[in-house]
Amino acid sequence: MLVKxxxxxxxxxxxxxPEVEAVLVASASHPLAQEEGPVTLEALQRHVELTxxxxxxxxxxxxxxxxxxDRVFFLSDFLTKRAAVRxxxxxGWMPLYLVQEELATGELRxxxxxxxxxxxxxxxxxxxxxxxLGRAGQRLFALxxxxxxx
Length: 150
Fold this sequence. Notes:
The chain is of the alpha+beta class. The protein has a domain at about 20-120: D-Maltodextrin-Binding Protein, domain 2 (3-Layer(aba) Sandwich). About 30% of the residues lie in helices and about 25% in strands. The chain has 6 helices and 9 strands, in the order E-E-E-H-H-E-H-E-H-E-H-E-E-E-H. It has helices at about 30-35, 40-45, 60-65, 80-85, 95-105, 135-145; strands at about 1-5, 10-15, 20-25, 50, 70-75, 90-95, 110, 120, 125-130. Strands 3, 6, 7 and 8 form a 4-stranded antiparallel β-sheet that branches. The chain has a 3-stranded antiparallel β-sheet with strand order 1-9-2, with no helix packed on it. A two-stranded parallel sheet has the order 4-5. The longest helix has 11 residues, at about 135-145. The two termini are about 20 Å apart. Residues about 55-65 have low confidence and may be disordered.
């Protein structure tokens, strides 16, 4: 499994992956993209927050970078979330590598949140300690660590 926040345990082995930078974005037509000064938490909470559903049982990791508003829309993956943000349906955190082109063209804009519009995290590839990675797992790990994927 790929995890964002991993607590080590004796039954699981974790392989650290390269850091990912996340950026808070909205469509250029979204009201949050029109704000001139830093955006407050209260301003964010007035809009729909788009987030990817975390399949883990623990909500600790998912709430770390959520804004606590009443209007949160959960999506299944980041590509769907990128499409929703591009359509102006809401705002949210996105891996920078997935939205660099849209930021460069101005289709998406970085939301200037007063507490910071970027953060980094180091994901891990985790598997049962008693079952080493098979060929597919080893290939996935190689692609994720050797630059085979963005």
